[in-house]
């Protein structure tokens, strides 16, 4: 009985390939690294800092309004060069 004919380099071609699992793991690692670096860059961007400060101001104004309505007395909000304060409520954002 003779050997089954094979072409030259058949064994080396199998050894050079990647399995589906290896490719999926590589893509997952690249995706995770990209996501981590993108979120790190966005965390300190000036737009995000301004958005956070604006959100904090809106929440503080709502809180002060609610307290003024509950107490039936006016409240004051003082603006500073680096933030604002409401002395009657120990609120100081600088």
Helices and strands: which structural class? mainly alpha
The H/E string reads HHHEEE
Low-confidence stretches: none
Main sheet record:
3 strands, antiparallel
Helix content: 55-70%
Give the overall form.
rod-shaped
The count of strands amounts to: 3
For the CA atoms, what is the radius of gyration?
31 Å
- Put simply, the count of helices is 3
Widest sheet, order of strands: 1-2-3
What can you tell me about this protein's structure?
With 94 residues, the protein is mainly alpha-helical. Helix content is 61%, strand content 11%. The protein is built from 3 helices and 3 strands. A 3-stranded antiparallel beta sheet has the order 1-2-3, with no helix packed on it. A hairpin with a 4-residue loop joins strand 2 and strand 3. The chain is rod-shaped and about 100 Å long. The mean pLDDT is 83.
Give short descriptive properties of this protein.
94 residues, mainly alpha, 3-stranded antiparallel beta sheet, rod-shaped
Write the layout of secondary structure elements.
Elements: H1 10-16, H2 20-43, H3 46-71, E1 78-80, E2 83-86, E3 91-93
């Amino acid at each position: 009985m003779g050997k089954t004919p094979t072409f030259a380099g058949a064994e080396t071609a199998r050894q050079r390939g990647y399995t589906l699992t290896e490719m999926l793991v590589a893509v997952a690692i690249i995706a995770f690294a990209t996501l981590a670096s993108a979120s790190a860059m966005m965390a300190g961007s000036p737009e995000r800092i301004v958005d956070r400060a604006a959100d904090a101001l809106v929440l503080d104004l709502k809180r002060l309004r609610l307290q003024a309505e509950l107490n039936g007395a006016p409240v004051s909000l003082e603006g500073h060069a680096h933030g604002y304060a409401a002395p009657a409520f120990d609120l100081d954002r600088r």
